[in-house]
């Protein structure tokens, strides 16, 4: 009897062991079959298609290549959307269109790093005001591209001013205003068809008076120290979020079946910044605040790619250079609020002279039409102050430096073999008040031709409301 009981016990133990083993195998099988949860980093991909172009050679033209070189009586050849050759003397390929550029100038297309076209379009009405999600200080979850109205007439006006690419930013009401998007300035039906392929996203941040003013009576922040506390808490939360995703991925790779973190769209964007996938562009006027923000940048290990407006950047040009931060500035806007009071006309050339990355920007649907003149004003103000900067170096403020800050310099921003054929043929020296963009090419396609009014872009919204003479 005792033997029988022992046998039964052994049998029962074996059955339990087999059941446990089967359960373990079933769980292991389930773990192997569980799909890995990932975050789609590009859920709204570009659908941009270049304009049709043809092999073209411009001869006898003065060339500013966008990286500090000037060629007198030069030639530029572009084909299949790319710069194919540039120099003083080139062989003209058979079948190429030849344009006589005698007396004219060629530059890379202008890139505006601070535009609100499409999110604050014309007509300027409350119903079109889509740039500020002013509901709480941290709105990194919103994306400017979802507010872009492609029918904004401003795109066509900017094109006539030689602008070939532009960054569309949210407004500056919030500490974190949301993601920016880079567009090719080819007016189209949808935002996706304008979206610059493979351009990194940006994150708009703002310091100083704007967040204080908007949230001072909404529970804060109401002070500059409150602003900084808000940035730091958001970055600390983003660090925790990143660690949670890293832990999930590590456990998954180890063969476990972990529960993924709960998605948070705010923290998705901030984590993208910490991983250097998204570039911070920060509205900041005062030198002391820019210095503080570079300290916060170091604390949390991310990079600020530009301070936008940078009215007092001239005071800290050495710090900007040391920390590899660009400053995007106006030529002469100042004094319209206290943090803009200490602006000087020599700001841009002084930042350049300090070895930092200087950029001319617009922040205006009117200024974007004349950015070449804004650069000319800054250049001439610097010359009067004894800063001997050449025009070919000053053009970097409009093309190469903006492209670098946006992460697209490998594709555009200079006239170099293999880069996109984004260029402007000017009627005269583009630093002249009288110069006009004769022809604007984007990826080698003729996007604007001053001599052919019938080809000028007209938004659907304008049809029947303006004539050819009204859109010059």
TrEMBL record:
The keyword Hydrolase applies. Residues 1-24 form the signal peptide. CDD domains: Met_dep_hydrolase_C. Keywords: Hydrolase, Signal. Gene3D superfamilies: Metal-dependent hydrolases (3.20.20.140). Residues 384-444 form the Amidohydrolase-related domain. PROSITE patterns: PROKAR_LIPOPROTEIN (PS51257). GO terms for cellular component: cytosol. Pfam families: Amidohydro_1 (PF01979). The keyword Ion transport does not apply. InterPro entries: Amidohydro-rel (IPR006680), Metal-dep_hydrolase_composite (IPR011059), Metal_Hydrolase (IPR032466), Metallo-dep_Hydrolases_sf (IPR050378). Its cofactor is Zn(2+). One of its GO terms (molecular function) is hydrolase activity, acting on carbon-nitrogen (but not peptide) bonds, in cyclic amides. PANTHER family: COLLAPSIN RESPONSE MEDIATOR PROTEIN, HYDRANTOINASE/DIHYDROPYRIMIDINASE FAMILY MEMBER. This is Amidohydrolase. The lineage of its organism: Bacteria, Pseudomonadati, Pseudomonadota, Gammaproteobacteria, Alteromonadales.
